[in-house]
Amino acid sequence: MIGRVISSHVRIEFWYTLSPLQNELSEEYTLEIINALNGKDIDKLMSIGKKIIPIIKKVKDDKGVSILMRLFTDDEDEKTDLPYHQLVPGGLHPGMSVYMQGTVPRHKNSTWVNFQLDFACGHHKEADVPLHLTHHINAETFGLNTFQAGRWGKEEKHMNFFQKGDQIEVILIVRDFGYEVLMNRKCICSYHHRIPPQNVQVIRIDGDLELQFLSVVGGAMMTTPYSHPVSDGLHPGMSVYVQGKVPRRGHNFRMDFAIGKFEEGDILLHFNPRINQGIVVLNSYESRRWRKEDRYMKPLQKGENFEIIFIVNEAEYQVLLNGSPLCKFEHRISPQFVKFVNFHGHLTLQSLTMVRGQIVGNMLLTGSAVYYPPEPYTGNIPGGLGTSRTITVRGFILKDAKSFVINLKAGQNIALHLNPRMKPRRYVVRNTCLKGSWGDEEDDLPFNPFHFGQYFEVSICCDKEKFKVYTSGRHLFNFNHRYATIQRIRTLEIKGDVTISYIKY
């Protein structure tokens, strides 16, 4: 499967499949695997792999782990029987991705359907299907469609990418506007939402495909160059929020607010961190000419995470980097003409969000959302919690973090105490504190998504019986209500070894 050097393809597979093992592996093994991947040292990786096969088998029900088993046991033929179904608790949301790997059989009697993939709203045959991908053997095209209210919509056809005998990789990235379809690392097309992706309950795969791997990834998978459409332009009061990471071998990247995709047309704002020079350059490109550069000494570090907010004001863009003001850049072309936000270069792009709001001090207020509040944070929940309400918190866990806390409070009562702990061991505590007394702790989880030195996103959904908690769109746990009067839960409290980027009520 691989030679003595780890290919980038295998390294990517490892990153996707390592997370289910985090609770079972010791920190020592985890760090050894990460170092082997970064150093592309296959001999070291195989040595570690042989030691942890019993641990991998413990979580064998996770389909992604099958890649590790094939690598460490030389089991090249491991595949998943079709038809295959995978539940999607909580649905799909922008920033999530579905990653599929398999092989198109070389010798099959079938001459029509090769395989089909459905994002469905239920298990029954009559359920709506927001996305239906059908690949035909010996056809020139593959099809994308939606099944809604008992009827198929208009099929969109695109050039066929796979042939018999091919090893295939399909990535479906959920965007605000639709699904972005990548095949073998190439962006093939986009398919606009006809049914909201959060309605998806199950992923179905059937046909002649030899399925080897299917994973729903909670975080964004944006490969550069990447272009994000802006439907109605940018206007005063809007902000563009970007999360990412500079690779350890990265030199520079650029982010352009542009009229066209990539190099097509004018660039209203060119944001260009030059890592090796320790500067950030801002400029515009008009009528095929670059204008005067603005330079700022605010280096981004290799291997470091970053957050950037571009705030659109009447006269200029205001730029905040990692929560601190960086600069202002006067409009040279009206921002209403922005049609795309384009990314090139050396960065790992994790999220891009566009919001409306205003600045108060260093905080960006966006109606029911707050960017960069002070820590520790205590804030009122507008109108109280109530059922069918969701609170989302984004932030960054410090590199030397021991723990942090998210509390939902009614007066002095804590209706939900969410306490991820990183040291001395990693686990997530849930509890209540009513009338000054702590209840029974819950700390069992199928996986632990919290790591020091990484971003996190937590969404707390409230219904009549329980809190449902998600991390990066992936269901983490349910916690039954112990405090009955939900409407009295009016306070959100966050403290500990984190910085908060965003709170959405």
How is this structure best described in words?
By secondary structure, the protein is mainly beta. The strands form 6 sheets. It has an 8-stranded antiparallel sheet with strand order 25-26-27-38-29-34-35-36, with no helix packed on it. Strands 1, 3, 4, 5, 6, 7 and 11 form a 7-stranded antiparallel sheet that branches. Helix 2 runs antiparallel to helix 3 and helix 3 (42-58) crosses helix 4 (65-73). The radius of gyration is 24 Å and the shape is globular.
Topology:
Layout: H1 8-18, H2 27-39, H3 42-58, H4 65-73, E1 84-87, E2 97-103, E3 113-120, E4 129-136, E5 141-148, E6 151-152, E7 156-159, E8 167-174, E9 178-183, E10 186-192, E11 202-207, E12 210-217, E13 226-229, E14 238-245, E15 253-258, E16 267-274, E17 279-286, E18 289-290, E19 294-296, E20 305-312, E21 316-321, E22 324-330, E23 340-345, E24 348-356, E25 358-360, E26 363-365, E27 369-371, E28 377-380, E29 389-397, E30 404-410, E31 413-421, E32 427-434, E33 437-438, E34 455-462, E35 466-471, E36 474-480, E37 491-496, E38 498-504
Antiparallel strand pairs: 1-11, 2-8, 2-12, 3-4, 3-11, 4-5, 5-6, 5-7, 8-9, 9-10, 13-23, 14-20, 14-24, 15-16, 15-23, 16-17, 17-18, 17-19, 20-21, 21-22, 25-26, 26-27, 27-38, 28-37, 29-34, 29-38, 30-31, 30-37, 31-32, 32-33, 34-35, 35-36
